[in-house]
Amino acid sequence: MARFVLHEVRYVLMAMVYSSRCLAEKIQNSTVDQCIYWFLTLIPIAMLCIPQFSYLLVDTKDLFEFVLVLVPISEILLTNLKMIICNMKREKIINLINELQAEWIEYQKSEHIEIQRLITATAKKTRMFVIIYTTGFVVICLEYASLPLFKFVFHSIFNNNQSNYTITIPYSSRFFYSTESTTSFALTYFFIMIAVYLLALTLSGFDSLFATLAMHITTMFKFLKIEIDQLELDLHAGTNRAEVHAKLKQIILKHKSNLSLIDQLEDGFSFYLMVQFLTSSIVVCVVLYNLTIVFGWNEDTIKTVTYLPGAILQLYIFCWYAQNITEEASLVADHIYNIPWYLSDPALQKTILTLMVKAQKPAGVTASKFYMVTLQSFQRITSTSYSYFTLLQTINQQ
């Protein structure tokens, strides 16, 4: 079971500063890790959030400049808030991972070919997702922050008159000290890049952790459906009553355990999702509006074009994997319905009926209990974003 941690969530947990404890079969919490993580959280707050927010309040002169500053600061503030939320929920997330590992170990011992195939497929999918998603977000964020540096290098190499371009801080910021000197500017830029890297790694890490756990919980329901189908075969084969009752009892316990895993996933990420959805509609709206007021192929256009797909993808990922959990949980009731209950004794028939009624209740992840997170949530948020966008356009034209 250490394989689950080592390959799917190892560097996600490293990004959350679990250090070597994430290499153990049972992940451990640590006060030292928490303190280090809170310290790392302060770096982007000090180098990005506070300076940008100060600039937004004091130095912006018009709506155009306000929107340009609002685009990066919205995601930076959101990411910092996520870092704080996940550190406060750290113990619950650890408990969920450890419990999921314990359940996963039991299925790894199974000799059923379909179960082994699902285990291998889930490991591959989660590994590829985490690698691609994390790499993509780190590249986008570092590209956003290092664009002024690349532009300066380009002017230095291909333009003889270097006075045409002077390197600037990548984000519009107001610091409490002067960055006019070369030393202070270089140190400021260096720590900004560190802050951006921390934000990118933790942002992709938390999102990947949610998706990884959601994929494994979804697979747990697929395992359960395989066991229900096996029970159907046993009833057709006339397996003795005691064995059938024992298998049905195991199915009930595993279904209850799977529902508990969903509750723990929601408990750990529910407020995290609520913050994401409340701000996503505003962020996407502002980015769309920014595209309409930035003309030509310039630095602001490149930033906006690369940022928009990431913002939409991030929102879609949450809704997609939460939707998968809801769908797989609902399919359990269909598989129970197909059991030939008429071949069993009255006591078993009542138990099957009770289990089916329990499985018919909607199960899934909610955003702070306000609504179920599904692809319909993604549709509503994108629709709301476009409505805000058209409103901004109307106001700007007037």
Overview of the structural elements:
By secondary structure, the chain is mainly alpha-helical. It has helices spanning 2-15, 31-58, 63-88, 90-108, 113-158, 182-237, 241-293, 299-337, 346-360, 375-397. Helix 6 runs antiparallel to helix 7 (241-293), helix 7 runs parallel beside helix 10 and helix 8 (299-337) packs antiparallel against helix 10. The longest helix is centred in the middle third of the chain and has 56 residues, at 182-237. It is elongated. Mean pLDDT is 79; it is low at 1-8.
Mean pLDDT: 79
Please summarize the sheet with the most strands.
none
Which runs of at least 5 residues are low in confidence (pLDDT < 50)?
A: 1-8
Derived structural class: mainly alpha
What is the radius of gyration computed over CA atoms, rounded to a whole number of angstroms?
Answer: 25 Å
Can you tag this structure with a few keywords?
398 residues
Summarize the structure.
The chain has 398 residues and is mainly alpha-helical. 80% of the residues lie in helices and 0% in strands.
SSE layout and pairings?
Elements: H1 2-15, H2 31-58, H3 63-88, H4 90-108, H5 113-158, H6 182-237, H7 241-293, H8 299-337, H9 346-360, H10 375-397
